[in-house]
Amino acid sequence: MARAGLTPARIVAAAADLADVDGFDTVSMSAVARHFEVRDASLYAHVRSLHDLRSGIAVLSLAELADQVSAALAGRAGRDALVAFAHAYRLYALKHPGRYASTQMTLEPDVAEQSAARRHADMTRAILRGYALSEPDETDAVRLLHATFHGYVLLERGGGFSRGTRSSTASWDSALNALHFTLGHWPSS
């Protein structure tokens, strides 16, 4: 691939692809340089540091995930919105493990402010409107959903559900039914 074609966006996209194959923690400037068949130093004209490269992967991944969740949520409310959100989240995490891992990275405040992180929070709160929760219950419910979705996909990716006769998808569907019930019967603070 020609050196002249390097741009920050192309470098971040290539690094995100490498993260999905080899793991987010293994992404290095050297690995990306090898992908483009250039020297490491050539990347530094476009990306300041490994931290900035990894932050770029996180920003890209948050935007991709927000787009997928947003498309899945269109026209849905209540349980249907909860299930659509959850399925889009899980599918992205399973299909793009390195990108998904990057979404858990703590971003610098100015980078986080410009990322799609706010869209995720807004969409999560939007699905909770169907359950008529007020604060602080809504915040607690947001945290419950994130912990459930994130924990489930980490265990699933790590092989935590490989034993037994019940499929992880069947258990996922049961977990979503339980979340729907819990959100609909939330104990008031």
Automatic annotation (TrEMBL):
Segments forming domain HTH tetR-type: 5-65
Origin: domain of life: Bacteria
InterPro entries named among the record's database cross-references: Homeodomain-like_sf (IPR009057), HTH-type_TetR-like_transc_reg (IPR050109), HTH_TetR (IPR001647), MT1864/Rv1816-like_C (IPR025996), Tet_transcr_reg_TetR-rel_C_sf (IPR036271)
Alphabetical list of Pfam families matching this protein: TetR_C_33
Classification via PROSITE patterns: HTH_TETR_2
Record-annotated DNA-binding residue ranges: 28-47
Keyword Transcription: yes
Presence of keyword DNA-binding: yes
Transmembrane domains' residue ranges: none
Molecular function GO terms recorded: DNA-binding transcription factor activity; transcription cis-regulatory region binding
The entry's keywords: DNA-binding, Transcription, Transcription regulation
Name of protein: WHG domain-containing protein
UniProt organism field: Cryobacterium cryoconiti
